[in-house]
Amino acid sequence: MKLSDITWQGTIPQVDAVDSAETSGLSMDDQTFEGFYQRTARSLWIYLVRVSGNAALADDLLQESYLRFLCAAHWNEGDVACRRYLFRIATNLLRDHWRRKASTSLEELPEGAFLAGDNRDVDRIESQMLLAPAFERMSPRERQLLWLAYAEGATHREIAQITGLRTAGVRIVLFRARRKLARLLRQRIAVAGCNL
Amino acid sequence: MRWHSCAQEKELEAALREGRWPRACGPRLRAHVDVCRDCQDLVLVTEAMQEARLQTEQVAPFGSPGSLWWRAQRRHRNEAIERMTKPVAVAEKVGLLGMLVAFCVAVWQWGPLADWLNFFQDLLGSSAFQLDGLWTAFSGTSAWVVVVMFATLGTLGFIAGFAVYLLREEN
Hints:
The complex is a heterodimer.
Chain A: H1 8-23, H2 30-52, H3 55-72, H4 79-102, H5 121-125, H6 131-136, H7 140-151, H8 156-163, H9 167-195
Chain B: H1 9-17, H2 27-35, H3 37-59, H4 65-108, H5 110-123, H6 134-137, H7 143-170
């Protein structure tokens, strides 16, 4: 094709085609995304609100997680892989949020870090429950692992993929965290029993 | 601290996950849990977590996936535009920087440059070309040589900018 053969009339439809390709260049179409969102949004929001203890923050991180997921994920990897990828994005966003506040690694953060703030949404949600006070005494990393393992039912390998830890490390931290949480829950049950 | 798991843990985990604990489990597993501290911990923690999950699910907001989809489209498009314009922006900056450096060098090293320009002038067969000062370089017939020189340097800078960008992308 000669350069003189190229006309604006011929070029503009090509620009439009590129534009529509960009529009549909997301990892999945809107119908598929809607289904995926309905299957995953609640779980992800609950994970974020439980680990962060802040419903407003969970809302923000949920939206950002889906935006990043849509711009980056490959839907042909399957539902399970996409779900795991989504949780990984959310976990990284949580970590970034904590790092901005503390400028230290997640493992070094103290127990109850970023949970006992002014915004006690989780306490409002479940004031009658025993878990929230016990959860406050766990570190952010322990809260993440416990929630993924026992509320989401994720395997050690899946947790490792979501959090970026080694599988063996997950097993050890999880075992210790579970024992610690069980001890705290028993203490709360005993205190609640005495108060009755 | 000992951290290896109990042999019955997998079976108990599956029963808890599938909602079979305790009624749909055999007496052997229940008897084991009665005496195993690790399994008791597992039951206590899992039941507390699952109950908390159910309670939180009732208050979980359910936003619109449509608005997220629309925002993702906008972000995706903006990122694409940014990707397309980035090399041009980088090349522009490098080109401008190159021209600025060339200008500074020209001012600083005017003597050798004037000789060099004279050489070119002689080469082109031009007569009566004397560089007495800076003003002569920008006046009359010699001005176009300076313009061509700066334009060449700018173009080289622009191409260098592209090269820098491509190398950075490759890395």
